[in-house]
Each structure stands twice: as structure tokens, then as C-alpha cells.
Amino acid sequence: MQKNIFTLLFLTVTCVATAQKTSYTFQPKWTVGDKKTISIVQHEKETKGDAVVEDTTTYLNAAISVLKEDNEAYYLKVVYENIAMKSAINFYERLGDELKEYANLELKYKVNKQTGKPDLQNWKEAQQFINKSFEQIDSLISNKVPDAASFLSYGFAPIKEIFESKENIEAYMTDEIGYLFFPYNKKFTTGDTLTLTERCANPFSPTDTIDQTTLVYLSKIDDAKKMYSIQSNDILDISGFKEMIKAMMGKMADAFGGSDSSKTKAANDIDSFDISYSNSTSINFDNSTSWPIEIIKTNRVFATDPKEGRNEKNITTTIIIK
To answer: Cα-flanking dihedrals φ and ψ of residue 226, to 5°?
Structure first.
């Protein structure tokens, strides 16, 4: 009898312990004077059918420093390579030597201590810096490589759009350095998945917006070392966009007319059309310093088209922070 009571007690305690979950919340706990370097390696591979049409690796460096703090926030300086310079250097390789003062863009953020939410403070100065660099690059390229000037102007258009407003700059930099702030202001529970929803740009039609659902969870936990891995997977609802494309293809087929067999083939081609997009991020986070130390981002775009066949682009970005 006594043995049965001890057995029952043991099973009860075990079940309660199993049912218990641990919750984690992270906040920035930085020190004024902290300096971090960021090394970014991006590998991009694109295939059409079985043929590889692009296989490139690019490198980027950035730096972060904690300038000051007050009761409410930390103040960061982020030094990031000027994307206008990186675009233009393909036309004139000595550009970096002749316009060194425009090589790096400085962005200053105010980061809330409770929420970790960043607020870009010097967006107007950043806008002026980029516009001035456009002028200098355009002048230099027009002088050194006049035949490339028109191509460069066309290539600068989307970059200029990024720096038209504070909101555009913040949105762009969220894609570039958002991992620095992503772990904050969330409640992670072991075994549970957070679901975040928002509107985002359609990767197949940037002027359009679609629904995005992001699933976030702790994939690895090491309480002893205060190391945590945060996994996020984006799910984009592109069903409406796919149906729109199919409808356009259908209207074009109807406009051309043709025999019943050609109409049947057109209908089959439309049914075979498909596109998909996936995006995931893994963040290794050191809670003893409250800095992420490694980030791996993977992006896959896949499309099947009756004329182009199977197209796929995979981008893997590895980011190391020291």
C-alpha cells in the first residue's frame, strides 16, 4: 500500500513538472561604449530549369556603437556601407578611392530600454548625405564613363525612393539590421509559437501589399550559458496575386482566340503556372550581453511558367557580430 502511494505521488509530481512551461522576455542591457562589428556574407544562386544562371557571393561590413543612455533609452550609431556607392562601383572601379567620404552611411537610433523599439533620429541628415553622394557619383561617372551615366541613373531610382522619407529608410533598414532588435518586446514560452501578422510588400510586385504571418519560437535554450536560438518563419499570402496573374493570362488567351485545341492548351498553361516564396531567420542570441551573435537568413523564390519553365532563386545570408 505504501509503495503504491509513493508511486502515485511520483507520477503526480512528474506530470506537473512536465506540464510546466518557462517564459522568457529579453530587453537590451547594453553598456555605453560597447562597439560591435558586423560581417555579412550573402550567397545568391538562381537556376532556370537545370541551368545555373547566377551564382554570386557578396560581402558587406557594418559597425555599431552605444553612444549614450538615459533613463528611457540607449542611443546607437550604426555605420553601414553606402548602397549607392556599391551599385556605382560596378561602372567605375576607382569610385571608392575618389569618393571615400561617401563610402559609409551613419545612422543614429534611439532604442527604448523597455521595448527595444528603435527610432531613427538622423533621417534628414542621412537623406542629405545620400542625395549628395548621388550628385557626386553622377558627376564622376558622367566624366569618367559617360556611356554608363544613363544606366546608373536608372539604377539609382529605387535607392532614391528608399531615402525619400523616414518611414522608407526605417523599412529598408529593418530588412538590413532588424535582427538587432527582433528578440525584444516578445514573450517566448517553451513549446509555444508566437504568431505575428502584418501587411508587407509583395516580393513579386513591390507596389502591392499582402498579408504576412510570422511564426516565432525558441528553437534552442541554454540557460547556463544564457544562449538562446530564435527561429522565425514568414508565411506570405500570395493566393490573390496568383489568381490575378492567372486571370490576366486568361484574358490574353481569349484575346488571341484560336482553335478549341489552342484554347485548351492555354487553359492548361494557366493551370500549370505557380509561384511561391519562403523566408526564414535564425538568431543566436547571447542574453548575458543582450546582443545577437549570429544570424542566418534564408530566402527562396520559386516559379513555374509555361514559357520560362522552372525558375528558382535562393539567397542565404550569414551575419556574424563580434
So the answer is: 55, 40
Residue-level pLDDT at 97: 78
d(CA 284, CA 157): 35
Lowest mean pLDDT among 2-11, 14-23, 41-50: 2-11
pTM summary value:
0.80
List the grid coordinates of 216: 516565432
3-state per-residue secondary structure call for 247-291 = HHHHHHHHHHCCCHHHHHHHHHHHHHCEEEEEEEEEEEEECCCCE
* CA-based nearest residue to 109, from 79, 71, 129: 79
Helix or strand (DSSP H, E) at 28 = none
Q: Which helix (H) or strand (E) holds 10?
A: helix 2-19
Quick check: 244 and 237 in contact, CB under 8 A? no
Phi first, then psi, for residue 108 (nearest 5°) are: -115, 130
Whether residue 233 contacts residue 280, with contact meaning beta carbons closer than 8 Å, is answered with yes
| Beta strands, E only, 203-256 | 205-222, 227-236
Contacts of 99 (CB under 8 A, 6+ apart): 85, 133, 136, 137, 140
SS3 117: coil
Residue pointed to by grid coordinates 519553365: 309
Q: Which grid coordinates are listed for 169?
A: 529608410
Min mean pLDDT across 1-15, 118-132, 183-197 is at 1-15
Read off the C-alpha cell for 244: 490575378
**Strand, helix or coil at 192?**
coil
